[in-house]
Design a protein that fits this description.
9 helices, five-stranded mixed sheet, single chain, Alpha-Beta Plaits
Length: 319
């Protein structure tokens, strides 16, 4: 009986010890998971700050990556777009509306590139005025200014074109950076020149590189200027001006107009030819006409001499 009791006690102790061992192992695993979660999960749950300080203060290999992600992604590229437009507006007073269009452009921060005004007559010989103005308008105010100028009268035609030159500007910026580095290198070498030949050669090379740099810079600045200030050509015509031709050149009226234009063109050509030949006809025609008249008179005299001689002969005597 004692042996049986011992065995039962040992079995009970073994089971208890095994249970304690498993419990201790589970506690250790929970602690490890807690530590892992506090060290590895902190970047994911850290509050995001506007300036990205939370990402920078986080320790570990993922810090820089988190900072770059918190920055907002790829940098935003400002597009360089050149806008050009043409606008035809029919108005009652050309001069007054032209001055108003210029004021609208200047109020938007632009200026006048050119201003040409003229007068003409329509098909009924009624005079009318016309003005053609080239305006340079800032890109941000271009659309609003075009609408404002179109509202000055009755819009007939509008055409707006856009050309994206962003890639060209970026390429020129890169080439300018490289060319500046070459210029700086040539200047350093020029300072170290010791012989006259080296000095002359380096001066020529430096001048060539500076000329290339100036050319690239001028091209880049020109594109940026065209992108910053859009060009709008405004044509203001008076109400009495002929209407713009809107047909496709077919039909009876179009054929009649084309035939009349061809007739006028033919008449102009004929008159031009006559004008070219008239001096030659005057210079050569008078002597030729005088020679013809002289020869005709000479022939008449020769033909009249035999007739007169035959009529004057005496009659024959009778046998």
């Amino acid at each position: 009986m004692a042996t049986v009791r011992r065995q039962r006690a040992l079995a009970t102790l073994g089971v208890t010890g095994l249970a304690l061992t498993l419990a201790l192992a589970g506690c250790g695993a929970d602690g490890a998971d807690t530590v892992s979660s506090s060290s590895g999960g902190a970047p994911a749950i850290a509050p995001a700050m506007p300036d990205g300080k939370a990402a920078e203060d986080t320790a570990g290999a993922g810090g820089p990556v988190a900072a770059s992600g918190a920055g907002g992604g790829a940098p935003v590229i400002n597009r360089e777009v050149i806008y050009t437009g043409s606008l035809t507006v029919r108005v009652a007073d050309v001069d007054a509306r032209a001055e108003e269009a210029i004021r609208l452009a200047e109020a938007a921060g632009g200026f006048v590139g050119s201003d040409a005004r003229s007068s003409d007559v329509n098909y009924d010989d009624v005079p009318y005025e016309r003005a053609t103005i080239a305006l340079r308008i800032p890109r941000d105010a271009f659309a609003a200014t075009v609408d404002a100028i179109a509202a000055l009268g009755e819009q007939e035609n509008r055409k707006i074109e856009a050309q994206d030159v962003t890639e060209e500007v970026i390429d020129l910026d890169s080439r300018i950076t490289g060319q500046r580095a070459q210029v700086d290198s040539a200047r350093r070498l020029l300072e170290q020149a010791k012989t006259l030949n080296d000095l002359v050669s380096l001066e020529n090379e430096l001048a060539r590189r500076e000329a290339d740099l100036a050319s690239l810079t001028a091209k880049r600045d020109r594109l940026k200027d065209l992108a910053a200030l859009s060009t709008l050509t405004v044509e203001l015509v008076q109400d009495s001006a002929p209407a713009s031709v809107k047909d496709d050149g077919t039909g009876f009226l179009a054929g009649l107009r084309n035939g009349w234009d061809a007739f006028l063109t033919f008449g102009v050509v004929v008159l031009t030819v006559i004008g070219v030949l008239l001096p030659w006809l005057v210079v050569l025609g008078i002597p030729v006409a005088a020679l013809v008249i002289f020869r005709r008179r000479l022939r008449r005299r020769r033909a009249a001499v035999p007739v007169t001689t035959t009529a004057a002969a005496p009659p024959a005597a009778a046998p």
